[in-house]
Request: fold
Amino acid sequence: MNIILLGPPGAGKGTQARLLVEKHGFVQLSTGDMLRAARTSGTEMGKQVAAVMDRGDLVTDEIVIGLIAEQLDTGAGAKGVIFDGFPRTLAQADALSELLTGRGARLDAVVEMRVDDEAVIRRISGRFTCDRCGEVYHDDTKRPADPEACDKCGENKFKRRADDNADSVRTRLLAYYRETSPLIGYYYAKGQLRSVDGMGEIDAVHTAIESALRP
Ligand code: ADP
Ligand code: ADP
Ligand code: ZN
Reply:
């Protein structure tokens, strides 16, 4: 199955994508993670996008479409792909459709996670991740059982994102409403949209997504 998780920054897309990966063996493709990796490894592209990302604006369609195309070509997503944080513009949505068609694949569902703005701000302000495996935590809603060790891999190093600050979050929300939210209407019109309530606890949202994915 090829699935898009759609929702504002902080909605819980990454968290839910990881649960779907664990359960079904899908591959998670997160353009945000790929861009951060490019920055860490210091590639030319990584340097080019750094300031844009820290501000909370979108990087160019060309860059993220290129990243996705590259990943699809590795063939790793044979069991299914969860697109997390991509597409974020109509141009990206059209490009994805072409990329999939060109590879004899198709999009099975677009799951919109509905979360209100205050919750998004709360979720982003408390977010931190495991530096080794990327497990996503939150100061209030999801702490590691042992504060010194990741639940998943035992690592004792956690990090917070530079762009998870109040200014950047406002810019990211604006970018979401301006550029990304039109995708809801776009996929609705194509008959591919399934909306779930993203306000519940992590497990409840997971259950809602699983049932939204059943035919
Ligand atoms: P969040 O988890 O807050 O939704 P992401 O990790 O998905 O954030 O993305 C972080 C940043 O990376 C975005 O603010 C944006 O600058 C850039 N980015 C990620 N995916 C895309 C995309 N599909 N198109 C444009 N920019 C993107
Ligand atoms: P996104 O990928 O959409 O930006 P994340 O999965 O990174 O969102 O989640 C943002 C923050 O909210 C993280 O700190 C995560 O632990 C927390 N979170 C995710 N889902 C929920 C939920 N259903 N209830 C409470 N907190 C959540
Ligand atoms: Zn870990």
About this structure: Strands lie at 2-6, 27-30, 81-84, 109-114, 127-130, 136-138, 158-159, 193-197. The pocket of adenosine-5'-diphosphate (ligand 1) is lined by residues 9-10, 14, 31-32, 35, 52-53, 56-59, 64, 85-86, 88, 92, 172 (CB under 6 Å).
